[in-house]
Specification:
The chain has 362 residues and is mainly alpha-helical. 56% of the residues lie in helices and 1% in strands. It has one domain.
Length: 362
């Protein structure tokens, strides 16, 4: 199997690379305790999930490092930012969206649902940043991270840290969102409480040391709200330009708030429904399941048992009927030279056998 070399960047790409390199060259924060190997956190190729974290407390006690649901459920650990942000979005959808519906607004919501949900979250946040299921250029990595931020699910650092911790402790003590702590907890209520338990810097250096050292990723913490405000201005402005205040309001409400809420619940179904209902292709130590409904609404993420068995594999559908639309986007990006060295194999042995096939045939 031939690997695709990275194409030469054009003028626009070179400009973004220069900006990113300038940002990354700035001083880093003081060093912190050494974190686990980043390869382990991403989920190494050929190592299906077989065991939870071995860090255990004495019998009858709970290790505070785990950050269990019981430890997190306290008033002082409430995430008022998340409660306010998600509460406002749902309030707008319930109270305003029914009165601002237009076909144009619906069309914009559907397109942006796919862009932010599939390309931003499933491909960018999940398969690239969390698991390194492919390689890409610096400029395209930040483009995908920016699109993922527009999904409203948090910054790249927070999202990736929580998801890596989920894989490490899946359906065990310390899992940020396991149905073992309640179906609705795993779906959305877990977001009401900080996962870092008060020390976000230490939490990020524990779970995303590879991303935390990138100043560009840290800067995106400060861009989360501004890019949403900017997207709202653009949506309203475009609608106002072509149809006045009525269309502008419709594009704003449906293109931003309705789309955001539906992307949120699609992603949350992976955490809840795909750990409760479905079938297994692989035996893992958690309750991950392949759920066809979640695979449809979450752009292939519903083949969740496959993913937990082989976390770094960028292709989540492992049977011929398990269609993964995000994988099709990855294939397209690979043909365009935007991504390369894609992990489309379960194990290193499978990769080697595939590479030797043409030689054997000859």
């Amino acid at each position: 199997m031939e690997s695709t070399a990275a194409p030469a960047p054009n003028r626009f790409e070179r400009g973004i690379v220069i900006m990113a390199n300038v940002v990354e060259s700035l001083p880093n924060p003081p060093s912190q305790p050494v974190a686990p190997d980043a390869e382990e956190l991403r989920g190494g190729v050929g190592s299906p999930q077989t065991a939870p974290n071995s860090t255990k407390a004495p019998q009858g006690q709970t290790n505070p490092e785990l950050g269990t649901a019981a430890q997190r459920k306290r008033f002082s650990n409430l995430s008022w930012w998340a409660i306010g942000w998600l509460g406002l979005a749902h309030l707008v959808v319930i109270c305003v969206a029914p009165f601002t519906f237009t076909l144009a607004g619906l069309a914009v919501a559907v397109v942006l649902h796919w862009l932010t949900g599939s390309i931003g979250i499933c491909l960018g946040y999940h398969r690239l940043l969390t698991h390194s299921g492919m390689k890409t250029s610096t400029w395209f990595k930040y483009v995908l991270a920016g699109v993922g931020s527009l999904a409203g699910e948090g910054t790249p650092l927070d999202w990736v840290a929580d998801h890596r911790k989920h894989h490490k402790h899946s359906d065990q003590d310390g899992d940020p969102h396991s149905p073992h702590d309640g179906g609705w907890w795993s779906h959305m209520f877990w977001l009401a409480f900080h996962t870092h338990n008060g020390d976000r810097d230490a939490y990020l250096q524990r779970w995303v040391p590879d991303l935390y050292k990138l100043r560009g990723m840290r800067i995106m913490d400060y861009l989360f709200l501004p890019i949403h405000l900017l997207s709202g201005v653009i949506l309203f402005g475009a609608g106002y330009l072509f149809g006045g205040v009525e269309l502008g309001t419709s594009l704003l409400v449906w293109g931003l708030f309705v789309r955001l809420v539906f992307v949120l619940h699609a992603t949350w179904m992976v955490n809840s429904a795909s750990h409760i209902w479905g079938y297994k292709n692989y035996e893992t130590t958690d309750d991950s399941r392949n759920n066809w409904l979640v695979a449809i609404v979450a752009y292939g993420e519903g083949w969740h048992n496959n993913h937990h068995a082989h976390p770094r594999m960028a292709k989540h559908g492992h049977k011929w009927w398990e269609f993964d639309i995000t994988w099709q986007a990855i294939r397209l990006f690979r043909k365009l030279g935007l991504v390369w060295d894609v992990v489309d194999y379960r194990t290193a042995a499978e990769k080697k056998a595939r590479e030797q096939q043409p030689t054997s045939a000859a």
